[in-house]
Design brief:
Blueprint: H1 8-22, E1 33-40, E2 61-68, H2 75-81, H3 98-105, E3 106-116, E4 122-130, E5 134-137, E6 148-156, H4 158-161, H5 168-184, E7 191-196, E8 199-202, H6 203-210, E9 211-222, E10 225-234, E11 244-249, E12 252-258, E13 270-272, E14 276-285, H7 287-292, H8 317-331, H9 333-353, H10 362-367, H11 378-407, H12 415-451, H13 463-470, E15 475-476, E16 499-502, E17 522-531, E18 539-550, H14 564-577, E19 596-601, H15 606-614, E20 618-619, E21 625-630, E22 635-640, H16 642-660
Parallel strand pairs: 1-7, 11-14, 18-19, 19-22
Antiparallel strand pairs: 1-2, 2-6, 3-4, 3-6, 4-5, 7-8, 9-10, 10-14, 11-12, 13-14, 15-16, 16-17, 17-18, 20-21, 21-22
Length: 665
């Protein structure tokens, strides 16, 4: 018996009680009653956990008592109990070994019972049941005014105890769901209560909370076998949130299966115009399932699927499930159509507002039959769309290989049509890739906007957080993918560089030839092909030097010793003085004045403005930066405030954002 079925022995004892009540003579008006009592370890110690002393945990369960007013342990029942694999109640789907499950999870079982003998006299008996002593009679039981039985399951084994539900509500719900077939049948079930200390739960109340109404009863036929489907509308609650298929046998639920997504539009709650929201549940039963349920009633002796070419009469769980799902689609036709429309609208809204990269391929994704829960989370919907896009790309690759291979031979009649369809798909995928790239830029700018704002404590992000967003720290060109940095935020031209270093010493950079241990935040060189004199076709690579310094937002230490403008110019001077090599180690011809560009990203505090003015820099038109050219250093200098940086990058990309419908401000 698997640990996940730790309460199965209790459930079997309750079902035995229901059957004992059903076996009472006809004409009895009373509905019958079963009282279940939870027994806990009274010696459990207080929990001195993080909540402090005195916090009392839920005490461990040590056993259960199940009392019913059924026919009791008559001579026939007692004889069956003492017979292994008895067929006494085989017509009820019973295998006669349910009581053996008691001893899988409990050390000992005791039974007290009263029954009427053949003369109508009330008789009593009591006995114990254990692995060591099997069935041991304890004489007659007294204290009964009418027939019935009290089964005590004692010594709940720890390995099962740990996997069992702990609270009375959870226990009652598991009992109810296992025995729900009895509540749904004509005539209903006995009164069943689960008591734990001072708390009692009635299963009849659970029925009212659980089930909204019955829908229809259906009968389907699969390869000559008939299956009965009881279709229910469950009340939509946090507990009842997904549609389920319950495989039943011997009037019990054996397997519970989640149906979410297995029928297009069937995910969570459905809406019916007449009755409002509900969650669908199906209870499936048949003689075929009764005959093939495992003895412990935790699974069926039926193959999941039958490989190859099965015989006509071979029946698998997949065959049965497919037929059930087909019937479910018919039963829920109108609510499912409404749910599919809501799901389609959810996808369109998400693509329009949050994921425009999927817009070029959305028609193809819909052709593939995507259906989503209208309440799906954004991240889960993104994953679904991404999986479909990957499959479209994979199919297009295979299709392209076939078309190109066919082009070398005599093409088929529909070759031109298939080629046009392939090229259209490739175009849509390329558009999707471009949209993803532009959307990523929007996300990066949003993140940068958050990093430059003060938090709730009035503190600003460290410069290394902003640095890492623009380009990873302590990296070089050969350690970065082509799209591994966001230097486009500063200048689009920085995406095209021969060598890039981030937070490295000048000495460690092969392109500088410098012995300095100073560390510019970002340094890049770019080889520019320029014609020299009039010698046509003769070109010399001229190194372009780019230095970027990033300061913490609202930092106010731009003093003489920490002047970022002068720091950048010093870096340029050291680089020019060295024997400069390319990133691949080739020497660059000497040049006395390689173009240099210095970018300083810092908020325009009073001290920073003072440094800009001393350096003869001019304010930008928007007042968010300064720029100018230093003649002696032959360097262009630009100081950008963080707001100016975000605004400038947003403006350069505005046309792309607008095209995709993304917010651009």
């Amino acid at each position: 018996m698997p640990k996940s079925h730790a309460l199965l022995p209790l459930l079997e004892a309750i079902v035995n009680g229901i059957q004992a009540i059903d076996a009472r003579s006809e004409g009895t008006d009373a509905p019958g009653r079963i009282d279940v009592r939870v027994h806990r370890d009274s010696q459990a110690e207080l929990d001195f956990g993080p909540a402090g002393p005195g916090r009392t945990p839920m005490k461990p369960i040590v056993g259960f008592t199940v009392a019913d007013d059924g026919v009791g342990f008559t001579e026939q029942n007692m004889s069956s109990f003492e017979t292994l694999d008895s067929d006494f109640k085989s017509d009820l789907g019973c295998r006669g070994i349910g009581r053996l499950l008691w001893l899988k999870a409990f050390d000992r079982v005791s039974v007290r019972s009263a029954y009427e003998d053949d003369d109508g006299q009330l008789r009593g008996r009591q006995f114990r049941f254990s692995v060591e002593r099997e069935v041991e009679q304890d004489g007659e039981a007294d204290g009964f005014a009418r027939p019935g039985a009290v089964v005590s399951l004692d010594g709940f084994k720890k390995s099962f105890q740990q996997h069992a539900p702990k609270g009375v509500d959870a226990i009652a719900r598991e009992v109810f769901e296992h025995c729900i077939w009895y509540f749904l049948r004509p005539g209903g079930a006995p009164v069943v209560t689960i008591a734990d200390d001072d708390e009692t739960v009635s299963l009849a109340d659970l029925m009212n909370e659980f089930v909204d109404s019955a829908m229809t009863s259906s009968t389907i036929e699969v390869k000559g076998q008939k299956f009965d489907m009881l279709n229910l509308r469950l009340k939509a609650t946090a507990r009842n949130s997904v549609p389920r298929l319950h495989w039943c046998a011997a009037s019990r639920v054996v397997i519970e299966e989640n149906l979410s997504g297995k029928v297009p539009g069937l995910h969570g709650k459905l809406v019916d115009e007449a009755s409002g929201e509900f969650v669908y549940a199906c209870y499936l039963a048949s003689d075929f399932l009764d005959e093939r349920v495992r003895a412990d009633r935790t699974a069926f002796e039926i193959s999941d699927r039958i490989a190859g070419q099965p015989l006509v009469d071979d029946l698998s769980l997949d065959d049965i499930r497919d037929a059930v799902l087909e019937e479910v689609a018919k039963i829920l036709k109108d609510p499912l159509e409404s749910a599919r429309e809501q799901g389609k609208q959810r996808v369109h809204d998400f693509v329009t507002k949050r994921a425009p990269r999927y817009r070029p391929v959305l028609a193809k994704i819909e052709e593939r039959g995507i259906t989503v829960d209208p309440s799906v989370k954004d991240q889960d919907l993104e994953l679904q769309l991404h999986r479909h896009l990957q499959k479209i790309e994979s199919d297009a690759f295979v299709q392209g290989q076939e078309i190109f291979a066919e082009a070398e031979a005599e093409p088929a009649e529909d070759y031109a049509e298939r080629l046009a369809a392939y090229l259209a798909t490739v175009s849509e995928i390329n558009q999707s890739d471009l949209a993803a790239y532009v959307s990523r830029r929007r996300t990066v700018l949003d993140l940068l906007g958050r990093l430059i704002r003060a938090d709730k404590d009035g503190k600003y992000s460290r410069e290394d957080a902003i640095h890492s967003l623009i380009v990873p720290m302590r990296t070089e060109s050969n350690e970065l993918a082509s799209d591994g940095s966001n230097l486009w935020i500063i200048d689009e031209r920085l995406a095209f560089h021969d060598y890039l270093a981030s937070d490295k010493t000048l000495k460690s950079m092969p392109v500088t030839g410098s012995e300095s241990t100073k560390e510019p935040d970002i340094l890049a060189t770019r080889l520019i092909d320029s014609p020299v004199l009039a010698a046509e076709g003769q070109k010399l690579p001229l190194p372009s030097i780019v230095v970027v310094e990033i300061k913490r937002p609202m930092r106010k230490d731009a003093t003489e010793d920490k002047n970022p403008i002068q720091q950048c110019l010093d870096y340029v001077k050291r680089i020019r003085a060295g024997g400069v090599l390319t990133a691949t180690g080739r020497p660059i011809p000497p040049t006395h004045e390689p173009p240099a560009f210095c970018y300083i990203i810092a908020d325009l505090t009073d001290r920073m403005i003072e440094r800009c003015e001393i350096s003869n820099l001019r304010p930008t038109h928007d007042g968010l930066g300064y720029f100018g050219f230093n003649d002696s250093a032959k360097a262009y200098i630009e100081v950008m405030s963080f707001d100016g940086l975000v605004n400038s990058a947003t403006e350069r990309n505005r046309a792309f954002f607008d095209k995709l419908g993304l917010p651009s401000g």
